[in-house]
Amino acid sequence: MAVFKATKESVKALIALQALDLALDENARDLAAVPSRKAAEEAAFEAKKGALAAAKAELTRLQVEKKNMELKAAGKEEEIRKHQRDLNQIKSNDAYKALENEIAFAAREKDEAETAVLELLERIDAAAAAEKAEQAAVRSLEVSLGEKLAALDAGAAALASAGDGLRERRAALTGSIQPDLLERYEFLRGRLKGQAVAEVSGRPGDKLSCGGCHMRLRPQEAVDLLKPDGLAVCGECQRLMYLRATIFGAVEKQESGA
After folding, report:
1. In this structure, are 126 and 223 located in the same domain?
2. Count of domains forming the chain
3. Of 158, 173, 188, which residue sits at a domain end?
4. In which domain, by residue range, is 53 found?
5. Residues 124 and 200 in one domain
6. Alpha-carbon span 55 to 130, nearest angstrom
């Protein structure tokens, strides 16, 4: 296992740099998620507008169907009156009975059309109420959409500002880290997608493991981590490892756990 020769101050700066970079990663993820979150809010609003359009279309359809049924009922009424006038001119019994049957059939169709009109009136009332509810929902959602989009934009601006602050702090830290150590760190961050530095888990004298891959350290690796200038490399994941008691000391360790 390789051991980097580095001062405690350089290692501390590297650990702080890792924390800043992880915060920058999270900041970038949150900022990148803003457009999709805005799109989701807008899509929900469009879906609600679609529901309103569907409710309006259903109301219109029912109204047209009711009008057609009213016309049908009126047509049958006129047909019945015409047939009744024609009855006075019929002399054949068979023709008379045939015309009476046509009158009866037209009367049934008129009754069915009028019944359908009554049923449609109830459905139209329900559809009108549904459309009104959808209109209210769209108006309410439109107001909340504006508020949510404004909040997301404000959040994005805050994230961008926070990211600028983190990058400024990062730039100040890199100058206090020895070049070869910083170069190794940057390489590992790119390869390991984020965490290049890992605190060793466990206590000196006990079984220790890498805080990155969680593999147990070999005895010599544990010994190397106790050296004041030793920043070890994990034999499994190649992360830079440090032991908190070595780098920060027993007093700082107790304070951090308090």
Report:
1. no
2. 2
3. 173
4. 28-173
5. no
6. 7
Give the N- to C-terminal CA distance of the chain in Å, as an integer. 33
Structure tokens at 108: 């049934």
Q: Report the alpha-carbon distance of residue 146 to residue 177 in Å, rounded.
A: 47
DSSP state of 227: S
Return d(Cα 233, Cα 189) in angstroms, integer: 14
φ, ψ dihedrals at 44, nearest 5°? -65, -40
Residue 100 vs residues 81, 83, 110, 239: alpha-carbon distances, Å: 12, 8, 15, 100
Cα 229 to Cα 9, 16, 239, 246, 255, distances in angstroms: 10, 17, 17, 9, 22
Question: Domain check: are 159 and 194 in the same one?
Answer: no
Domain of 244, CATH number, reads 1.10.287.1490
What is the chain's pLDDT, residue by residue, as a tens digit (258 residues)? Answer: 455 677 888 889 999 999 999 999 999 999 999 999 999 999 999 999 999 999 999 999 999 999 999 999 999 999 999 999 988 888 888 888 999 999 999 999 999 999 999 999 999 999 999 999 999 999 999 999 999 999 999 999 999 999 999 999 999 999 889 898 899 999 999 888 888 999 998 876 678 899 999 999 887 777 778 777 668 888 888 899 988 888 887 544 434 443
Distance, in Å, from the CA atom of 181 to the CA atom of 186, rounded to the nearest integer, reads 9
Q: Which of 157, 173, 189 is the last residue of a domain?
A: 173
